[in-house]
Every structure is written in structure tokens, then in C-alpha cells.
Specification:
- This protein is of the alpha+beta class and 113 residues long.
- It has a domain of 63 residues.
- A three-stranded antiparallel sheet has the order 3-4-7, with no helix packed on it. Strands 1-2 form a two-stranded antiparallel ribbon. A two-stranded antiparallel sheet has the order 5-6.
- A hairpin with a 5-residue loop joins strand 1 and strand 2.
- The longest helix has 18 residues.
Length: 113
């Protein structure tokens, strides 16, 4: 069974969730917390900080090349710069997330009309 691990400035690895657990959490979110599902999927797929995810706009998403530009944060409902200049980055995203984000964009357009 594969698992998701993280390194925190040390040779010690912390096992957070197995792939099976991540899949289960995403399935539950999709079914029972549909509004939260895209946020959670982005978090799992990119490892982005909460403040970086909440600052994302559709212009930050490169649907064609399947990547997200992380170039700002959200702090107290205001856009701010990322934690450091090295935090600005492109993150590749899986095709499944691209589909979710396209659906979200379409729903957002429908609400505006």
C-alpha cells in the first residue's frame, strides 16, 4: 500500500495518510461536502497551503498544461504575497482535478448569469 509522506527539514518522514485513506476522504467530500471537495482535492494534489489555495483564481489555472500557478496568498480576506519569493511556483495537477476545476468554473459562470 502506497502512502503520502512529508519531510520537514529533517531526515525523519511522517506518514500522513495512505493512498487508500486519501481516496476515501475525497470520496466522502465529493458526496457529502461538494462545496469543499475542489479545495480538498487541490490541497491533496498540490500540497499548497490553505492561504495559497483560498487565493487561487481561475486565471491561475493552466487547464491546457494541467498546472496551477501559486503566486499569492489570502490573509484576512486580502490577497498578499506568498510566504517567500521561493514559494511562487507552478504545480502540476492530475487530469481528474482539471475536470473538477473545469466543472467548478462552469458552475461559477452559471451563477453569474
Amino acid at each position: 500500500m502506497r502512502s503520502l509522506s512529508i519531510v520537514i527539514d529533517s531526515p525523519v518522514f511522517y506518514q500522513l495518510l495512505t493512498l487508500e485513506e486519501i481516496t476515501k476522504v475525497l470520496e466522502i467530500a465529493k458526496k457529502d461536502y461538494a462545496g469543499f471537495y475542489p479545495f480538498l482535492f487541490i490541497a491533496v494534489a498540490t500540497g499548497a497551503r490553505k492561504s495559497e489555495i483560498t487565493a487561487l483564481t481561475f486565471t491561475d489555472i493552466d487547464f491546457k498544461n494541467r498546472r496551477i500557478l501559486i503566486n499569492k496568498s489570502m490573509y484576512k480576506k486580502e490577497f498578499t504575497s506568498t510566504k517567500s519569493k521561493y514559494s511562487v511556483r507552478y504545480v502540476n495537477i492530475p487530469e481528474q482535478l482539471v475536470k473538477v476545476l473545469i466543472e467548478l468554473k462552469m458552475r461559477s459562470k452559471d451563477k453569474k448569469d
